Amino acid sequence: MSKIAGLADRNPVWALGAIAAAAIVFPLVASDYWIDVAVFWGLYVLLGLSLNIIVGEVGLFDMGHMAFFAIGAYTTAILSGRFGISLWLLLPVAGIVAGLAGYVLARPIIRLRGDYLLIATIGLNEIVRISLLNNPWGLTGGPNGIIMLDQFRVFGLLIQRPIHFYYLVWALVAASVFALVRLQRSRIGRAWNCIREDEVAAEAMGIDVRWAKLLAFTLGAGLAGATGTVFAAKLVVISPESFTFMESVILFCIVILGGMGSIPGVVLGSAAMLVLPEILRNFAQYRMLFFGAALALMMIFRPQGLWPSKRWSTKLQESEGE
Amino acid sequence: MALFVEQLVNGLTVGAVYALVALGYTMVYGVMRLINFAHGDFFMLGSYLGFTLLVGTFVGSSLPLWAGLVLAVVVSALGIAILGMLVERAAYRPLRRSNRLTAVVSAMGVSIFLQNSAMLIWGPRYRAYPPWAVPDARWQIGAVHLGFMQVLVLVVSVLLMAGLYLFVQRTTVGAAIRATAIDHDAARLMGIDVDQIIRLIFVIGPGLGAVAGVLLGLYYRQIHFTVGWSYGLKAFTAAILGGIGNIPGAMVGGLLLGILEMLGAGYVSAAWKDVFVFLILILLLMFRPTGLLGERVAEKV
């Protein structure tokens, strides 16, 4: 893996060009089944990228991320069903609603550290999921969920076939990756990494730690919420089952498995989770079994992840001296 | 008033089960500063093992009722205790010296692994404990109705908790556990085999969890491979409520959480009762992270 990483580092333009070409050609030659697999892979990459802002870049342990994804998906389904607003408009709206929810929910708990934040976010995830299940004000449809009535349209073309979703999702992935790489290199990105490495030092350097953390939570929740719009359009029926604590854990693990703070890591981690089991289709029912075992083994033998971020320090390997 | 007392008894019953599970979380956290995400799954596996033993020992055998019950509880506790020891050896010991996040993720991996093992072994559907496994006795004391299972749950868990408390407070091994919880290196200098202590923790915790699993299976009848997480989360909340790392705290926290939950279910809404539990959790973390019987806690993962 490090060889590929090295190659990509030395020839970034060529590597990117090759990947882009392969990505564009793929759905023209693949079957609808595999295109669908790639669509869900892309959705998980988007989710992973959104969580990576919080967990990877800043080192905040958010294990309730599916809550924001759910808020985005439900916002989309409810608003489009009741008011018939175009999904293109709802994409940013769902992002903003989820982002605001992220801000409001994270605000009281953002100062919690490590374990405690992790537990609090698990609590948030459960509160949001149970609320959706209980059908407040008849909005969410309870356990049955809501049926999406609208689809994305591009110049009158309805986005319905897997190939359309494929291009939509991966275009969003490309845009997000571009934005997130820019963000990583920006002042705020470096501040985030600084907080991740040493919060006290970051504070001493004059970084407004609380503000930076809240910003990460808001942005991460927002991206997850916007992803929820595409997810709702793709799935047509959304129900609380899609947003369980288990899903949050899987997502958290994808980010760690890929390598904290590493964008290619997220892509690889999601592939390991979604594409690999489809290739080993006969073993698909053992998918989660393998995933669980792989997590434990990875932590023992390669704790820094599949494709560690370059700016990632050696912190994961050193003892914290109990 | 009748509703209040009724819910109080129901709350004490589930609370006792939470307390038994919470002990496993709190002991591991106290000694290793690790949230053992797999602990709820030990509980769940204990429940399944008890189910299989009950069905297995009764169908086509002439064992009396009580013998089958005792057998199911004891054997599943032993089995899960051994499993706990194996898991500690395989997935946690190699990470003893590394960053705590890696250990947490490894624990998640184990949890996912155990859950899916249970799903593959016992199937993805709900399984129901046999209704004939416990006598259908009911008693009335004043306005309170007591079922046989409620009495059994309370008696067994109180005995186990008292036993554990005495063991930790009064015996030499118990003192070694307490010493290890305070400082590994100092304990080692005093001649305590820290590895042994940690292994012991991973025998006691999962064993108690398995007993709780069988009791809860008998009480609610239905088990599913995901109950490890739903009950595990609540037991964990109970551990935090009492002050994580604190053994009497876990007991108090479990009972208190059970009562709060059942009163919430009785007076406000059953559908929203889990929301109360998690709201309590978050409020507690915000305002009193050390819990009710607070102890020192680590600041960072």
Biggest interface and its residues per chain?
A: A-B, 49 and 49 residues
Poorly predicted regions of chain A: 312-322
Mean pLDDT of chain B: 88
Tertiary shape of chain B = globular
Mean pLDDT of chain A: 85
What's the Cα radius of gyration of chain B? 19 Å
Secondary-structure content class of chain A: mainly alpha
Question: Which sequence of strands runs across the widest sheet of chain A?
Answer: 1-4
- Count the strands of chain A? 4
Distance between the termini of chain A: 33 Å
Helix coverage percent of residues of chain B?
Answer: over 70%
Strand content of chain B: under 5%
Topology:
The complex is a heterodimer of chains A (322) and B (301).
Chain A: H1 2-10, H2 12-29, H3 32-57, H4 66-83, H5 87-106, H6 114-133, E1 146-147, E2 153-154, E3 157-158, H7 162-185, H8 187-197, H9 199-204, H10 209-235, E4 237-238, H11 245-258, H12 263-274, H13 276-279, H14 287-301
Antiparallel strand pairs in A: 1-4, 2-3
Chain B: H1 2-32, H2 39-58, H3 65-92, H4 100-122, E1 127-128, E2 138-141, E3 144-147, H5 148-170, H6 172-182, H7 184-189, H8 194-220, E4 222-223, H9 227-242, H10 247-267, H11 273-287
Antiparallel strand pairs in B: 1-4, 2-3
Walkthrough of the structure:
- The complex is a heterodimer of chains A (322) and B (301).
- Helices cover 70% and strands 2% of the residues of chain A.
- Chain A is mainly α.
- In chain A, the strands form two sheets. Chain A has a two-stranded antiparallel ribbon.
- In chain A, a hairpin with a 2-residue loop joins strand 2 and strand 3 (157-158).
- The longest helix of chain A is centred in the last third of the chain and has 27 residues, at 209-235.
- Residues 312-322 of chain A have low confidence and may be disordered.
- Chain B is mainly alpha-helical and 301 residues long.
- In chain B, strand 2 and strand 3 form a beta hairpin.
- At the A-B interface, helix 6, helix 11 and helix 14 of A face helix 4, helix 9 and helix 11 of B.
